[in-house]
Design brief:
Layout (H helix, E strand, L loop, with lengths): L1 H12 L4 H26 L6 H25 L5 H4 L4 H16 L2 H10 L13 H7 L9 H11 L1 H26 L9 H12 L12 H29 L4 H9 L7 E4 L5 H10 L8 E5 L12 E4 L5 H4 L9 E4 L7 H20 L2 H6 L5 E6 L5 H7 L3 E4 H14 L3 H9 L5 E6 L8 E2 H8 L7 E6 L5 E3 L6 E2 L4 E6 L8
Parallel strand pairs: 1-2, 1-4, 2-3, 4-5, 5-6
Antiparallel strand pairs: 7-12, 8-11, 9-10, 9-12
């Protein structure tokens, strides 16, 4: 059962797997066939016997699309369960809430509307399947306009909820008042639904004229709704406009804080060189599919891809870290700014790390419930500040300038070494991974015997060192060194071969 669940999740949610590409390719092919059937039905005359075949084929396709949506929702893995431990009832509630939230996403709502074409009156909704084809980035070379629009609506979900709430409350109040005033004197008003229908038509300035007020008080209510309609339309226009031009940042930040984002990566700091870091994060296999949230005290750059969430705030303040749901993140990266002096940049980095640790100490309830501690990676530009960053609480400190210059100097004396090390450091080639020793071993074993037993070389891997339980590392240890069962292994490979700790 567990294996089936993993395969279904890979087929419908993990775009790195081959089965996902097969499933999506099959669905897209069926959508093209469905659109062809829709065109054929429109072109064929009503008395053509082929129409029956087209209708049967269309119902079969609709059934497949319904099954696909059910499997997609059923195979969803709530991100919160990847971070927090939950009791049985808590896990059930998390599963239910995650699936309901998933169903309310704009993309899912479009798919659900498309399958409603099973009702004859709604068969025109089948054309919505075309939007699913437009969702694939392969259709567009550089930017996917459909994805940008969908992302804008998802980012401003709180704003749209507010607007629809105003519209709903105004319509219900106006419709109810109109019904109570007109019910005895207006023959066109026979039920509460008639009043609500009239209010909706009036507030949206459509004005069908099928129902009109006959009393003075009814006309007054109609006038109030007309004025309210002007404000409501202006509200929707402002929200749509702000969504597409990245406005109303404070509302979006609040919406993110109140959202259900979990297991995302927080990046503190942004400058012109951050694009290289974002490209590296996007190419890292283990991070593909993870949401990157950038927090900086400047406005969102116009050239930043819409796939990245931007929260405007000062990372040196604990109140600002709450905007990015730091306690629910998988990791946080503190990037060194290169548009200021290295010492000033490092001082800012160290202060942010201190702030992060202080924020986590004050939110121990969420921290204790985590499966793993939040991993903090800090970039230091001046080597003198490495120990300060570690003392501040950084789990890993990367000296980017020193590493780069060391590779350059070493390449002068030993030609080709920089090229070889670049292949190791850059994602997409061999990389360094850390994993636990497989099996339920209880006795120590020598390093040489362990290498022979695991035989990672046959799977494209090479063990290069060990990390003991206290965190100390040994590179290229002697073969007679005893390795304890709780020791982790450092190895080169194109992909992870051992289970991570």
């Amino acid at each position: 059962m567990i294996e089936l669940s993993k395969h279904l999740h890979a087929a419908f949610h993990d775009d790195r797997t081959r089965i996902y590409r097969y499933v999506q390719g099959s669905i897209w092919g069926l959508i093209v066939v469905a659109i062809g059937l829709l065109v054929a039905e429109a072109l064929l005359p009503d008395d053509n016997p082929i129409n029956e075949v087209v209708l049967v084929a269309d119902r079969v396709l609709l059934t497949i699309f319904v099954l696909e949506i059910v499997l997609r929702v059923g195979s969803l893995r709530p991100a919160a369960l990847e971070v927090f431990r939950r009791p049985p009832m808590g896990r059930l509630r998390t599963h239910v809430v995650a699936r309901l939230t998933y169903l309310l996403r704009p993309i899912m709502l479009i798919d659900i509307l498309a399958v409603l074409a099973v009702f004859p009156e709604l068969r025109g909704l089948r054309a919505l399947r075309l939007l699913r084809l437009l969702r694939t980035s392969r259709v567009f070379r550089y930017r996917n306009p459909f994805a940008i629009v969908i992302h804008a609506f998802e980012e401003n979900g709180l704003l749209f909820a507010l607007a629809f709430t105003v519209l709903g409350v105004t319509t219900i109040l106006g419709g109810t008042s109109f019904y109570l005033v007109e019910i005895k004197q207006n023959p066109d008003v026979t039920s509460m639904l008639d009043g609500i229908w009239w209010a909706l038509v009036t507030i949206t300035t459509v004005g069908f004229g099928d129902i009109t007020p006959v009393t003075l008080l009814g006309r007054i209510i109609g006038g109030v709704l007309m004025v309210a309609g002007m404000f409501t339309l202006a509200l929707f226009a402002g929200i749509v406009g702000s969504s597409l031009v990245n406005g109303m940042l404070s509302i979006r930040e609040e919406q993110f804080r109140m959202s259900d984002y979990v297991n995302h990566v927080v990046l503190c700091g942004y400058d012109e060189s951050t694009a290289i870091l974002l490209a590296a994060l996007a190419s890292e296999p283990e991070l593909q599919g993870s949401q990157i949230v950038i927090v900086d005290d400047h406005e969102r750059p116009r050239d930043l891809s819409p796939g990245y969430l931007w929260v405007q705030g000062d990372s040196t303040k604990e109140s600002e870290l709450d905007k990015v749901r730091l306690t629910h993140a998988a990791a946080v990266i503190v990037s060194g700014k290169r548009d200021i002096a290295p010492q000033v940049a490092d001082a800012r980095t160290i202060l942010i790390v201190f702030t992060i640790r202080s924020y986590l100490d004050k939110n121990r309830k969420h921290v204790k419930a985590r499966r793993e501690a939040l991993h903090v990676v800090a970039e230091i530009l001046d080597s003198e500040n490495v120990d300060h960053a570690r003392s501040a609480g950084a789990d890993e400190v990367i000296e980017t300038r020193k590493i780069g210059y060391s590779m350059i100097a070493h390449a002068v004396g030993y030609h080709g070494t920089a090229t070889a090390m670049s292949g190791v450091l850059l994602s997409g080639s061999h990389n360094v991974y850390i994993g636990r020793i497989p099996g339920s071993r209880t006795e120590p074993i020598t390093f040489g015997e362990l290498m022979i037993e695991l035989q990672l070389s046959k799977r494209g891997g090479l063990i290069v060192g060990i990390r003991t339980a206290d965190g100390s590392e040994t590179i290229n240890p002697p073969k007679n060194l005893l390795v304890q069962p709780d020791t982790q292994l450092l190895y080169f490979a194109q992909e992870p071969l051992l289970e991570t700790a």
